[in-house]
Amino acid sequence: MSNQSLADSTESTAGFDAAELSDAIGMALEHAASLGAQSAEAGVSAQQGLSLAVRMGEVETVEHHRDRTMSVTLYNGQRRGSASCGDIRPDSIRDAVAQAWAIATHTEADPAAGLADPEQMATVFHELDMWHPEALTADALIERALDIEQAGRDSDSRIVNSEGATVTSSQAMGVYGNSHGFIGSQRGTSYYQGVMLVAAEKDRPDAMQGDYAWDSRRCFTALQDPQASGREAAQRALRRLGASPVKTTQAPVLFRAEAAVGLLEHLLSAVAGGAIFRKASFLLDKVGQSVFPEFINISENPHQHCGVNSSSFDNDGMTTGLNNALVSNGVLDRYVLSTYAARRLGLPSTGNAGGVRNLQLQPGAAGFDELVAEMGTGLIVTDLMGQGVNTVTGDYSRGATGFWVENGQIVQPVEEVTIAGNLRDMFTGIVAVGNDLDTRKNVQSPSWLLSPMTIAGS
Fold first, then answer.
1. Which residues of the chain have pLDDT under 50?
2. What is the reported pTM?
């Protein structure tokens, strides 16, 4: 969401009144002080949107939603109490503050508890181009969903079923303030479309395969063309027909960009402040050491225009963008720290309360087909399943589907295999990354070509 000072954002925005939300924050902080809280913080979020689903040419659901919620945290010395409420009526706010204060008077003191330091509060609020409201009716979104599904069903006679198409439109505004006098707002629009189709050969109607296509953007007009989206889902389902396991072997593995994002998310789990101060990470004490090949660079861009998770301040009100690099030339530069985690570790905060913002692995030069050719013989992974990842030890074992490659050419679709290794070896064993960066999520990655892993199949 885009963000700005409340001083510059007091107008009503598509049903959201920034001044009203700001007043609710002020009311909560004032009541907290009256109860004796030495410091306090509060956040209000307001959301509204429209979501609908169609299946086999029929409308299944149309849902409108609109809600506002508040969370408050009070500090009684180094004792902390938190509570929330589902609206911002004065009585509800006072009740939530009272509940938080009751908790703060009975909980154990925590030396790391407390607001971020006043001098760390954000003072510059960037215009991040996150607000692109469209006057979209339910009929318009229904028409788009039907177009997506129909284009996929019409593209090939082997598309025999649909799990449905979904289109959503949402708008959100958030305001955060604390007793340092900081208050900031952020707002954003979000649009999504997706469809899952099912394919089957005429002579094997029971051997069905499904696959999907989706897109998500801040601007509605930036979404993929609906008919192209439907055809993409159909093509992906058709490519999976005839899938079978391969024999157990050791071979290179090429993670398509959508699957490679998961590997970056495992990295984030391992460098998160909570995992580090609990000593529950295979990357403990690895800052300043090489954990990837030299050609790997990973960084945040929290001030990216129209980004998925851009913001000028983190969930503690701290300035973002102070420590953008996470991995430089293969070396782990830092952990991902909120104020609380940083205090537990005796380190400075990295402005990451609430997580990373627009994290990206720098793409390489090779196209996906070039990576396939470079792999020679091995497995392309398109989808992963299961939870077999241990970020304490780095052990990795997950079910996978994809395609088997021989002599640089895809020879068959693959299912019911398991790939196994250790994240340490997988990270250091990256042979190349592609130029096919997937920018649809907060964590963004191109495809990864890895050195041989264990592939368990038939």
1. 1-14
2. 0.94
